[in-house]
Automatic annotation (TrEMBL):
Stretches for region Disordered: 391-417
Annotated InterPro entries: Ryanodine_IP3_receptor
Source organism per UniProt: Callosobruchus maculatus (Southern cowpea weevil)
GO BP terms, alphabetized: release of sequestered calcium ion into cytosol by sarcoplasmic reticulum; striated muscle contraction
Domain of life: Eukaryota
Any one cellular-component term (Gene Ontology): sarcoplasmic reticulum membrane
The protein's name: Ryanodine receptor Ryr domain-containing protein
GO molecular function: ryanodine-sensitive calcium-release channel activity
Biased composition regions of type Basic residues, renumbered to the chain: 403-413
Length: 598
């Protein structure tokens, strides 16, 4: 391993020197102008290093392997990768170099993130290295001139944690775009999103060493600050076509949502959710207005439809950059919201519910979401399931992309149903559903279920509204003779709000009864939509429904798989007959003998 690390550090170091000195003849290949040693670095070294560091992080072997001479080589690799990813003057406006570096910059950032999640020394906090037993200062620095030299170079080449965080702050607050400073989003943010949670577990929030000798001073405040900047950045780029990084930012930012502050709900989670909801409403209104025009138009409308599809695709990209972070944050804060009735959480639920309702009605929304997932090879289950504080790694060696293609004609219907159920629109709404139900008193929650049942029976919405209004005006009494009185009593104990009174007006002049009826019908629509997704067979009419259970199907199939007697060889049939005859007749022949002897 030491040979590999040293050779890799030398290759990267020579590449950086050739770029800085302008020795482009050393970088060019002999066949094509674009065949440079950069291609070797990007296509060979970066994937190998990323897989290696991910494996070390998954197995927690970083503190066992990356020590002494290997740690010296690792510092050289870190310095070269950081320079290659953040120095915009290396390509010197040469087109082929610039194209090559821009193409593989996200892969370089992923490699930096993998390195940060396993390196046993807090390299962004060099002033604390003296407290770390794995640092070169406490191992070989006294007798190794190379170790002393690399430590001195790192202090001048690598910025500190506070410097990098302030650089991210300035970029987010300024009017700069991705093209002005792409390294901040592609390189620095993946590195920070792996570095902060890794060292937070060993920082002041979790460890209290004697004498205050901390190996890192990373706190939850650092992660909250970075998360806030990421969400602000997403909000600034909603609807921006020139933001390709939006498709991948959620995958590595989820790591820093560990001990997130409750104050992040007011700003920036709720404003961002409202921004996405407004854009979704605008898109649905545009789709509805264009639908009538497309039906009545006699000319070719393919360009209009293509534009609508592209706009929906862009909206899906924005949602997939935000919803994974929102789902993780909701999982952390939901119990707190339920206990304390946080009004901003109710507003957040309303935004997500409205987006879900539009997703259920739109002709393009779901289709473009599935196209986006397949085009970017996204695994929704990885985004939905609670992730660890480390980078997501595939431990069994399988690749997340490529490999063998699945059979196209196998269980198409079932796969489509699973895709719909695993949609982020459905997953996020289900996470927030307890918050939405907590808005109602117990009697109102029961009424929501009755309204949902009426939606399932295809009763018109205006009849359901009248039913809800009538039920709310009736006196709230439990009849002991009613078979369902126990259920009515349980519902009366649910919820955290009191039932509204008739003809009560709020401060804005609205009738609270009508407002409650609207909320009940809206919630029943949401539950109806979720029910139809979980039971898709109810949407189909005249469909053959199998009566045979799964166990009987398996029994029948196993019988079909058995070989019949007439197809077996004659010798085997003779042995079977002989064995069966012996088992059947021998006990009967022995029985008289036992009686005589008795």
């Amino acid at each position: 391993m030491l040979t590999f690390f040293n050779n890799t550090a030398d290759d990267l170091g020579h590449t950086i020197i050739n770029l800085q000195d302008g020795k482009y003849s050393h970088l060019r290949g002999t066949h094509l102008k674009t065949s440079t040693s950069l291609f070797y670095v990007n296509a060979v070294l970066l994937p190998i290093l990323t897989s290696l560091f991910d494996h070390l992080a998954y197995c927690e072997y970083g503190s066992d392997l990356l020590l002494d001479e290997i740690q010296v080589a690792s510092y050289k690799i870190l310095q070269a990768l950081y320079t290659l990813g953040t120095d915009p003057s290396l390509h010197r406006d040469r087109k082929y170099l610039k194209t090559e570096m821009e193409k593989y910059r996200p892969a370089l950032g992923s490699c930096m993130g993998a390195f940060s999640s396993t390196f046993p020394v807090a390299f962004l906090e060099p002033h604390l290295n003296k407290n770390n037993p794995f640092s070169l200062l406490n191992r070989i620095a006294d007798h190794s001139l190379e170790a002393q030299d690399i430590m001195a170079k790192m202090e001048s080449a690598m910025p500190t944690l506070e410097t990098i965080l302030s650089e991210v702050d300035q970029f987010v607050e300024s009017e700069k775009t991705y093209n002005d400073a792409p390294h901040i989003i592609d390189v620095i943010m993946p590195m920070l999103c792996s570095y902060l949670p890794f060292w937070w577990s060993q920082g002041p929030d979790n460890v209290s060493p004697t004498g205050g000798t901390h190996v890192s001073m990373v706190t939850a405040e650092h992660m909250n600050q970075l998360l806030k900047n990421v969400l602000k950045l997403i909000k600034k780029n909603i609807g921006n076509e020139n933001s390709p990084w939006m498709t991948r930012i959620a995958a590595y930012t989820q790591q820093i949502i560990i001990n997130s502050s409750e104050e992040l709900l007011k700003d920036p989670f709720l404003p961002l959710a409202e921004r996405v909801k407004k854009r979704t409403e605008v898109m649905f209104h545009k789709e509805e207005s264009m639908r009538g025009f497309i039906k009545s138009a006699s000319d070719d409308t393919s360009q209009i439809e293509t534009q609508i599809q592209e706009d929906w695709h862009l909206l899906v990209r924005d949602i997939y950059s935000f919803y994974p972070l929102l789902i993780k944050y909701v999982d952390l804060q939901r119990n707190h919201w339920l206990r304390h009735n946080i009004p901003e959480a109710e507003d957040l639920y309303n935004c997500v519910a409205e987006i879900f309702n539009i997703w259920s009605k739109s002709q393009y929304f779901l289709r473009e979401e599935q196209n986006f997932i397949s085009a970017n090879e996204i695994d929704n289950m990885v985004l939905i399931m609670p992730t660890a504080t480390r980078r997501p790694v595939v431990p069994d060696g399988t690749q997340t992309s490529g490999g063998k293609k699945k059979k196209k004609h196998r269980d198409k219907k079932r796969d489509k149903e699973k895709e719909i159920q695993a949609s982020l629109m459905v997953a996020c709404l289900k996470r927030l559903l307890p918050v939405g139900l907590n808005l109602f008193a117990g009697r109102e929650q029961e009424l929501v279920q009755h309204c949902k049942d009426r939606f399932l029976k295809k009763i018109p919405e205006y009849d359901i509204v009248e039913f809800a209004k009538t039920q709310l005006t009736l006196p709230d009494k439990i009849d002991p003779a009613d078979e369902m009185s126990w259920q009515h009593y349980l519902y009366s104990q649910l919820g955290s709000k009191k039932s509204v009174s008739v003809n009560v007006v709020d401060n804005n002049g609205k009738n609270l009864l009508e407002e409650t009826v609207e909320r009940i019908v809206a919630m029943s629509k949401v539950l109806y939509g979720l029910h139809m997704i979980d039971h898709p067979q109810q949407q189909q009419k005249g469909v053959y429904r199998s009566v045979v259970s799964t166990q009987r199907k398996r029994a029948v199939l196993s019988c079909f798989r058995q070989a019949s007697l007439h197809s077996l060889p004659s010798r085997r049939n003779q042995k079977i007959a002989e064995t069966v005859g012996r088992d059947c007749w021998e006990p009967q022949e022995k029985e008289p003998h036992s009686l005589v002897s008795g």
